[in-house]
Specification:
This protein is α+β, with helices and mostly antiparallel strands. Helices cover 45% and strands 21% of the residues. The termini are far apart.
Length: 815
């Protein structure tokens, strides 16, 4: 019996030992797997926190292609990194030019105190090979890239997170297109020990050591994070210990190595337990006591393990039900939804479980949500995060920020989704956009008000002169000399009114251009004397005209107006003080980037341009004034009026040109106006023949005058009748067409207004030429618009015109 008892005791001891060992191994594996999952999730969360900062910076860089250092400094300061992201050493924006080793463009690095540690202009960071490799990877892949441990920071564990900036917000589909659209990169430099410190939050895992390396070799130089239990106890790093678990992590296109394991606890050796058990077998009571004790301990540990598992499940449900976001797991139907989801959707959990997920999606979004889900199942790269509309139980619409993923439950793969209610943010964004539209409309109304007020002011002055001289003519009918002077005043005032109308049309970019091959140098030289007498004697006028400039297609009178406006503004900026105005000319080739930076034209194409530049040493302008100089009637003078630079902008736009303005308060202003070079390079046309030659010219034959203004028809009939012609009149295009049909064989010429009721001049002329193709014609208009492409070669008169101008165009039309 003692041997039997001993044998039974030994067998029971062996069984208990095996059972306890297996339970212990299973428990340790479960702990380690949980620790690895928690660590992996913590790393992804830490990287996502940094990526969120970068996405905000990316939006700023895309919204402002010419990002200034002050704007970047203000943005970084607004992030309050010391509070919101203590691990972030600095943030930077590197334009493409500085990444391509062009030192003309420098990176923007903030805070400035941290940037100084990297040498002048961040030189050590820009030269770090790991940083450069991360930038290249972000550009080529179009997504977040993470560098290895940066050498520029010495022994500190520091990495760079890089997010590319592309021209059209989203990354193009292929690598070549991404490189072409690449504009730069936003960079976040972070200390990994500080960044990964909150991995385990308020629930640390006792005895767990975790090390994270930037390289699979796990060398000391690539160590990013170490919980440091082993080193603190004088042992080896966990990466060098047998039994440590290694798991690769994919972070920003780079492989990190996660090494984790438990530190061996100091335990009493179990090697002597079988011997003690055998010796205890001498006495059946002692053996029974030992066996009973071991079994009791084993049972207590099993119960404790089961209790901990129940507590873990209870903690999960508590966290899920108190989370601020809705959590779903689903297959074809919803299998789980937390309490936040129930509040968000209005459905009780018991009612929604078992229903299809599409029941919650707004009908207008269901098709593309299904399409995304199908594409994800096909393995296509679909962004996991997107916003769509959710339909609540009571029929209300809510906007949610949804993140989709998967979770493995046994052998089943379920969909996992988290959703935040962003309805308030979407509504606020729509309200902000509406306010911005209203502000834009208010600015347009302000500009139109200035335009209307200025035009009314100038026309009232001109009408006063005309009315006053007309009154004098009425009072002094027997004074020929005085009457002639009054008539001259009226004619001059009409000419000034015509000039004001031309300026208004130039501001709108609609004035008819009498374009010809023109030399900018010749334009400046022809008005040299006028420029000299129009500025104070205290201002010196200098000319630096480049020789042999290629010609441009331009209206000479409007080119002179551009130069006169610029010189007049420069003179007013200098005032009565001593100063210098310099006129320069030259040729320059503009690429896409340079053309996009110019003002006055949004569709300027790159190519060869001729420019005229006016530089003054006057008072200059601040940024607020510079932003409004092209507004109609805007002026910095108390009594200023006139279209000025606004008219100049319209002229430049009408010639397909652009303007570059540089000004600093107190240091003067430079205007450079560009015009495209004339194709073919022909010599500029000479001056046109004087109109006086046509004053004595006479003709004969039947002509047709078509205009809806009776006074204009009478004036033209009187002028042509005195020149020897017989004149027919018509009040609109249809009446003119009827008269043409009746007299088409006898007519020598038709004269038409472009804008008339029922049928305009261009349409009437097309109908007439369908009846008689060779009929000569003269067109006129008060709007100054161009005729259609089939009539651009016809003689054209801009209202108002006089008798000599009319006869000159009639002679030109008849050859």
């Amino acid at each position: 019996m003692p041997w039997l008892v001993l044998g039974v005791g030994l067998a029971a001891t062996a069984w208990a030992w095996s059972t306890i060992s297996q339970q212990e191994a299973t428990y340790q594996r479960a702990r380690l797997e949980g620790a690895l999952a928690q660590t992996r999730e913590g790393v992804e969360h830490a990287v996502e926190e940094q990526a969120r900062l970068l996405r905000g910076a990316q939006g700023l860089a895309i919204g402002r292609p010419r990002l200034a250092a002050e704007d970047w400094r203000a943005f970084v300061a607004s992030l309050d990194l010391g509070r919101t992201s203590p691990a972030t050493r600095l943030m930077g924006y590197c334009p493409r030019a500085c990444l391509e080793e062009s030192r003309r463009i420098l990176p923007l690095l903030e805070p400035e105190a941290a940037a100084r540690d990297l040498g002048p202009d961040g030189g050590r960071l820009m030269a770090d090979p790991d940083f450069r490799a991360a930038v290249d990877r972000a550009r080529d892949r179009g997504e977040l890239a993470v560098s290895g441990r940066l050498r520029a920071f010495g022994d500190a564990s520091v990495i760079a997170l890089v997010l590319p900036v592309f021209r059209d917000f989203s990354a193009p589909d292929d690598a070549r297109a991404r490189r072409a659209s690449f504009q730069g990169a936003v960079v976040c430099v972070a200390e990994t020990p500080q960044m990964l410190r909150p991995l385990f939050g308020a629930s640390p895992i006792a005895g767990l050591d975790v090390e994270i390396y930037a390289d699979p070799a796990c060398g000391r130089e690539s160590l990013l994070y170490d919980r440091d239990l082993c080193v603190a106890q004088g042992g080896l790093p966990m990466a060098q210990r047998p039994g440590a678990r290694r798991i690769p992590l994919k972070v920003g296109g780079r492989r990190w190595e996660l090494v984790a394991g438990f530190v061996p606890e100091a335990k009493a050796s179990r090697a002597d337990r079988p011997r003690l058990t055998a010796l205890g077998g001498v006495a059946a009571s002692l053996l029974a006591f030992v066996v009973t004790l071991l079994l009791s301990r084993s049972r207590r540990r099993s119960l404790a393990l089961a209790h901990r598992l129940q507590e873990s499940e209870a903690r999960f449900r508590s966290l899920a039900d108190t989370a601020s976001c809705a959590i779903f797991t689903f297959s074809d139907v919803i299998e789980y939804m937390n309490a936040t989801g129930a509040r968000m959707t209005g459905y009780p959990v018991a009612e929604i479980v078992g229903q299809p997920l599409w029941k919650l999606v707004h009908p207008l979004d269901r098709d593309w949500i299904r399409g995304r889900a199908a594409a994800r199942l096909r393995g296509e790269p679909i962004p996991p995060r997107y916003e769509f509309r959710l339909l609540t139980r009571d029929g209300a619409t809510r906007w949610i920020d949804f993140t989709a993923g998967t979770v493995q439950v046994g052998e089943r793969t379920l969909g996992l989704g988290t959703a935040f209610d962003v309805t308030d943010r979407v509504v606020a964004t729509e309200a902000r956009v509406g306010m911005e539209r209203q502000l834009l409309e208010a600015q347009k109304l302000e500009s139109l008000g200035l335009l209307a007020g200025g035009v009314a002011h100038d026309f009232n002055n001109l009408l006063t002169v005309i009315q006053g001289n007309a009154g004098i003519l009425r009072e002094l009918p027997d004074d020929p000399e005085r009457a002639t002077a009054c008539l001259r005043n009226i004619e001059e005032t009409c000419r000034r009114a015509s000039d004001l109308v031309r300026q208004m049309l130039a501001y709108a970019g609609r004035g008819r251009l009498h374009v010809q091959a023109t030399s900018l140098n010749q334009v400046v030289q022809e008005i040299t004397q006028l420029l000299a007498v129009s500025i104070p004697k205290s201002v010196e006028l200098r000319f630096e005209l480049a020789p042999d400039l290629p010609p441009i297609e331009a209206d000479t009178a409007q080119m002179q107006q551009v130069v006169m406006n610029l010189v007049t503004n420069a003179s007013e900026a200098i005032g009565e003080a001593l100063g210098i105005i310099t006129l320069r000319s030259g040729a320059e080739t503009l690429d896409d980037r340079a053309a996009a930076e110019l003002q006055a034209s949004e569709t300027l194409k790159p190519g060869r341009f001729v420019y005229v530049e006016v530089q003054d040493t006057g008072s200059g302008m601040d940024a607020e004034t510079l932003a409004r100089i092209f507004d109609p009637f805007f002026t910095t003078k108390f009594t200023g009026r006139g279209l000025g630079l606004a008219a100049m902008q319209g002229i430049v736009r009408g010639h397909g040109g652009a303007v570059r303005v540089h000004s600093t308060a107190g240091k003067g202003t430079t205007f450079r106006v560009y015009f495209p070079v004339r194709e073919g390079g022909a010599e500029p046309a000479g001056p046109i023949a004087a109109l006086a030659e046509g004053a004595s010219w006479r003709g004969e034959g039947l002509v047709l005058v078509v205009d809806d203004e009776e006074g204009i028809r009478d004036f033209v009939q009187h002028t042509l009748a005195r020149a020897g012609f017989t004149v027919l009149q018509a009040g609109d295009g249809l009446a003119g067409l009827d008269a043409f049909r009746e007299h088409r064989d006898n007519l020598r010429l038709v004269l038409l207004d472009l804008t008339m009721p029922r049928m305009g001049g261009e349409e009437a002329l097309r109908e007439m030429r369908a009846l008689r193709e060779d009929i000569p014609a003269v067109l006129w208009s008060g709007y100054g618009e161009r005729a259609d492409p089939g009539a651009t070669a016809l003689p054209f008169l801009r209202k108002p015109f006089n008798a000599r101008e009319l006869l000159a165009k009639v002679r030109e039309a008849l050859g």
